[in-house]
Structures are given as structure tokens and as C-alpha cells.
Amino acid sequence: MTDLAAGPAADRPRQIVTAARTLLEADGPEALTMRRLADRVGVKASSLYKHFPDKSSVVAVLAGEMLREVAGVLAAAEKAAPGSLSALATAYRAYAVAHPHLYLLTMGRALPAAGAADAAAAPLFRSAGGDEDSARAAWAFAHGMVVLELGGRFPPGADLSAAWEAGIAAFTARTAG
User: Fold this and answer.
1) What's this model's pTM, rounded to 2 decimal places?
2) Which of these, 17, 75, 85, 159, is most buried using a 10 Å CB contact count?
3) Residues 25 and 87 in one domain
4) pLDDT tens for each residue of 74-130
5) Domain count of the chain?
């Protein structure tokens, strides 16, 4: 067990979130319990409640982190290839596949109405030329593909890269025409 209890009390919320992410990324959402989190941080479970009222508040912080990270990844993809839906979709997929538990934990719940969620959506909105309906449809495609891929819902041997490219080509043709 990593004993973070010896660290400064002011850093405790960050320590708790870091430990929560480590548990989540390593063992999945079922591993993210307040008891296991307390063990990981090196404190009693009751001590966690001094910093977070419940598990859902820890999850909310993790979701905010994920959305900020996705916003950064998409902004970098947009900067590297302005207006490219393919670059955005590739970056989105790569992030989700690299962080499957965090992605599914975050995207399987209501998102905040503003802030990190807006920042994450902005490059996609711009790539759709400001058309909100097209941006939402493209996001739904990307999100659906990622959820199906992470859930192992494609047949063995399916060429997922080809499926992604076909979906991106369909959206690109629609917005170009």
C-alpha cells in the first residue's frame, strides 16, 4: 500500500483523486470503492469523507479531468490538422482506448452543462463548420464506435480502423457536399 497519509493535508484531495484514477485505470470501475481508495491512500475510509462527501463526488472530479484531457487532445489534433474530422476522430479514439475505464465512467453519466465538456466539444463543433446537428451526429458516431470497441462488441477479426474511416468518410462527404 502506498502511504500518502504522511503527505501534507492540503494535498490530500489531489492524493485521493490520483489514487482513485490509479485504481480505476488498473482495475476498472468496480475497484473504485471508498474502502479500497482509503487503503490506497493510507487512511481510514472515514477520513476520505473530510474531503469528498461520497464516491460520486470523486467520480465527478475524475470526469472533469477526463474532459479537460480530451479537450487538450482534440485541440492538439485540430491544431495539427485544422478542420480534419479524421484527425479529431483518431485522437478521440486513441484517448478512449488508452483510458477505457475513465472514458466509460465519464461518458456513461450526465455531463456538466458547461466548462470542460464545452471545451472538449469545441474542436468537433468547429470541424462541422458550426453546424450543431452535424457536430452532435459526428460525436454520436465517435462515442458509439468507442463504446462498442471498448465493450468488445465487434466480431472477432473486424477491421475497426476501416469502420472508423468509413464513418468519417460519410461525415466528411456530408459536410463537403
Assistant:
1) 0.83
2) 85
3) no
4) 999 999 999 899 999 999 999 999 999 999 999 887 766 567 778 888 888 888 888
5) 2
Closest CA to 23 of 9, 4, 7: 4
- Other beta carbons less than 10 A from residue 59's beta carbon: 18
Residues 129 and 153 in one domain: yes
| Domain range enclosing 30 | 9-53
The tens digit of pLDDT for each residue in 2-38 reads 444 555 666 899 999 999 999 999 999 999 999 999 9
Under 8 Å between Cβ of 128 and 134:
yes
**CA–CA distance from 75 to each of 20, 47, 120, 149 (Å)?**
26, 38, 8, 23
| Pick from 127, 151, 152: nearest CA to 138 | 127
126: domain CATH number is: 1.10.357.10
